[in-house]
Structure formats: structure tokens, C-alpha cells
Amino acid sequence: MFSTLTLTGHNIPNAIMLTRAEDLPSHQFDHHKAVYHSKPTWHPSRLPENAGHLSLKLTERISWGRSAVTYAVEVVSTTSQESGVTVSNLLSLKQELCVKVARPNRCRTLAREAWVYNKLRCRKSGREGWSYDQVPQADRLQGVIAPHFYGFFVADQVSFPPWTSEDFQIDRRQATADDMTRDDPLDDDLLGSSGGKDHSIWRNWRPDPFIPMLAVIVMSRGGETCKYADGLDTSTQEDIFAILSDLSLASIVHGDLRPANIVRAPASTVLCERHNRIHKWNVIDFSSAVIDGYDVEQAEIKGTSHYKAKKALCGLQEMSFGEHIWYA
Predict the structure, then answer these.
(1) What are phi and psi of 220, to 5 degrees?
(2) Cα 99–276–224 angle (5° rounding)?
(3) Where is the Protein kinase domain (predicted)?
(4) How many Å apart are CA 316 and CA 68, to the nearest integer?
């Protein structure tokens, strides 16, 4: 939808321009054998050409972690490019969005998360080049079990004042172990064979503290995170298990199902046709996700190996949620 992004804010004296960037594909994780396989057909997501421009104003910090800090934003404007290309579904100025800003040495991690969000546009493979509007409603996961995703944007050699604010301060124990010249390794980095990931510009990316990169993702803003009392509610459990079923059908394992990564669904959430409901909850933060590659249609047929794989993944994710809810 958008090719460029402008960020402003009370602590950003000069507007910062970012451009849509390539994301980082994953290798395929075979959960049956517990090994990664090369997946040459998994390419970086296709970038929109001559699409729209989005202008946002950062407001309050709403969450923070080892890899990124997330801000609520106000939509200042959304416009089409001067080339005359018409951009459909321009956002309302009242749309509730948020911006997840990578720490300067975690841009590669955010590039991977962006790829997973893009993969959530459609649960079926072979439609990677399709726009969100082209995907049948029944096959969508983005905007259904996870927030709408509006793009991954970067800017090189910029000064981003919040980096030096309290917003980006981390625990002293983490700070001593944090290497500003290196991002955290991804689980599939050890696979040496050729694949779509290996042709990505992010494969060997290293941060340079003297030439920092600003990387952000833009998505719909969810509500409060899941609390212990929520997890005990049977309707909440049913809704979250339905979401995990959808995620497992798409052969995606979240990898970090802490209550902080389960939020009340954004107001823009649409009907899940598979469960005939608008989910009350959404999952976020896919930086630790691993992706298998079984056939979605076969995974709905009882007795097939794909169905058994889906059920196994779903069981693992339900167990993970059940274990983590105690720490809410």
C-alpha cells in the first residue's frame, strides 16, 4: 500500500523519511525431523512500486523489549504518488496504528519479523506475489488473527533522537552482553545451503554504530495484553486456541507465546471465515517464528501426514500458551 513513510514527533525536530525495504525470508523448518531445509522459492516479499506515502506522528511508548520499542502513532496524512497511481483503501486519519522501531543493532531481526507478517497475508503457498486485496477473505490471516501490516521501512545514516532517550534504555545486565556491532543470530543461520534467504541483502548484515540504520514496521494497534485472569476464561481460551489452529494450519509456529505477545484485537479486525467469528484476540511479535511448509488443503484432511503435522504443531502451541499464561 505504501512505498514511503515520514515520521515526526515531539522529540523528532526534523521529519525522517524512510523507504519500503526488502525483508528476510526464512528457511523451512521440518518439525517432523527437527531440521531446517533450504527453500529457494521463499523470496523476500515483493515491494509495492510507486504506491502511497504515509505520514505518522509518534506519541507514547506502548511496549519495549530486547529487539525493539513500539510507539502509538497518529496518522497525519496518506497520499498517492505524483505518478498518478491510484492507491486503494487509503487509511482514515482516525485509524489506530503503531510503529515498532528496531534497536540500531536489531534491524535484521525486524526484517525477519516483517517477512512473517507478509506471509500472514495468505495461509496458502504460491500466492506470495498477490496483494492483500487479491487474497480471498477465507485465506487471510493478516487482519484476522494478527494485526494488519502496512510495511517494513528503513532509512540509512539517520539521527533518531529517541535512541538516546529513556525509551531505548535496557537493563544493565542486558547492556553488558549487548554487542552493538552484531544482531542476535536467527535459528536458521547455521544452514549453509542455498535458498531464498541466502540471496537476501540481510543475510550477512552487520550494524555499524557510526552509520546507524533506522528500521520500522507499521501495523494496526492492538489493545491490552492477555492477563492471567483472561487466560482462565473459557471463552478467551477457546478464541486463542482457534487463533493457534489458524496459525498452525499455515505451518507457522510463533515461538514466543508469552502473554505480552497476545493482545486484544484491533478495531480493524475482520471476520475469520474458518471459525465464523471476529477474534477478540490477536498474536503479535513474530521475530522468533519458525515456518514449516506442508500443504494447507491436505492439512484439513484427517489421516494425511499434513493433517498430523498441523495437529502436532497446534498441540505444541496450545501447550506453550498454557505454560506462559501463568506468568501474565
Answers:
(1) -65, 150
(2) 35
(3) 56-328
(4) 26
